[in-house]
Design a protein that fits this description.
This protein is mostly helical. It has helices at residues 2-5, 35-44, 58-84, 90-101, 103-136, 142-159, 170-191; strands spanning 12-15, 27-31, 48-53.
Length: 195
């Protein structure tokens, strides 16, 4: 709709990499009738660029698909970190995960937790938009739907007065999140007549 209404040429550009990990050449997906013209300019700026469709909106749809995965993964990581924060043997589980998924995944998971402290609110909204788009298209989005609630709860926790500073480090963030989510769970149980 924007491309059709705009008086100028429009290129749909979707950032597909996080900039938090300082990737050497962040990935962009571009689409639209003028996408090919943007490739050399964006490549010269240090981006890795792929043309992904002839319509404005094609790149945005891929960005939403990436959000379904990455923001659901973030919710899984932060919920896992909170669940394991105070458990003896946490390191045994982390080593097992690292043997299966590699040290890069462990580093990335830590980065997800640390950036969640800053970005959970925005990311929950972005995931909600992605879920709504894919739901309208008739796709199953049960896991991302649940992840929205996790990210919303995390965002609320980081707004609390006793939340640690953004640079507190992953262990402190996980321990705080564990306490906050446990209190939220207990409150919900009481509201529902349990416990």
């Amino acid at each position: 709709a924007i491309a059709e209404a705009a008086p100028c040429r429009v290129v749909d550009v979707a950032l597909l990499d996080t900039l938090d990990d300082e990737a050497a050449h962040p990935s962009l997906a571009v689409s639209g009738a003028e996408a090919a013209a943007a490739v050399s300019l964006l490549s010269a700026l240090g981006f890795s660029v792929d043309v992904v469709g002839g319509l404005c909106g094609d790149a945005a749809l891929l960005k939403l698909a990436r959000s379904l995965f990455m923001k659901s993964l973030e919710a899984l990581v932060i919920e896992f970190e909170a669940a394991m924060a105070h458990m003896a043997g946490r390191d045994v589980v982390i080593r097992s995960i690292e043997r299966n998924l590699g040290p890069q995944f462990i580093t990335f998971s830590r980065m997800l937790l640390e950036t969640d402290r800053i970005h959970a609110g925005r990311r929950s909204v972005e995931l909600q938009e992605a879920v709504e788009s894919y739901r309208r298209a008739g796709r199953s989005v049960e896991v991302p739907s649940a992840a929205i609630r996790v990210l919303q709860a995390a965002a609320a926790s980081w707004r609390a007065a006793d939340a640690p500073a953004p640079d507190a480090g992953a262990p402190a963030l996980a321990q705080y999140l564990a306490r906050y989510l446990a209190r939220q769970h207990e409150a919900e149980e009481l509201r529902n007549g349990g416990g």
